[in-house]
Amino acid sequence: MPVDIAPLLDKSLFEEGTLLADVLASLNSTELARRRFREIARVAGLVFTGYPGASKSARQLQASSSLFYEVFRKYDAGNLLLSQAQAEVLSQELDIRRLAATLKRMRSQRIEPVELKVPSPFALPLMVERFRERLTTEKLNTRLTRMLKDMERAADAADQPVRSLRLDRGSRGRSA
Fold it and tell me: Are 82 and 75 in contact (CB under 8 A)?
């Protein structure tokens, strides 16, 4: 199936407008926020850590904070402690500002389509995922080994181009 590279060439793919929503949709931010909420709930005094010398176990603290998290998420979505947990996940765990700066830098670079004779090594994770979806008696490891040998053989004797892209920083000129 051909890939539409127009959003890449007009650089609309690198827009920061929906970055936050895209990041949250692409990962399990709820679990990260739940973990962060545990510490926030402890500091806020919502979770009792126990008396001196008789502290509660980590499992008990996790259960208590998870209960508070779920109740707030379900019935008080605008709760400041929930917002704090999500903000900390985005700033500390994901460094959203750095992601935005990277997208901005990518928008300023020149994108040059390059014809590859064989699939790039960057395509390997996508190819592996495609192989996992196929039903076969052959083990994934065996299929991967065979696929890598085939790719190496094809790279040595390549004549048919496959479309790929290369980011060029502009000031360095063309790189091989």
Answer: no
**Helix pair angle (140-156, 124-133), 10° resolution:** 140
Coil, strand or helix at 76: coil
Please give the biggest Cα pair distance in the chain. Answer: 73
In 3D space, the residue among 153, 154, 162, 149 whose CA is nearest the CA of residue 123 turns out to be 162
Please state, in angstroms and rounded to a whole number, the distance separating the CA atoms of residues 102 and 94.
13
Query: pLDDT digits over 71-91, tens only?
Result: 998 999 889 998 888 888 877
- The alpha-helical segments, DSSP class H, found in 89-139 are 96-108, 124-133
This prediction has a pTM of 0.47
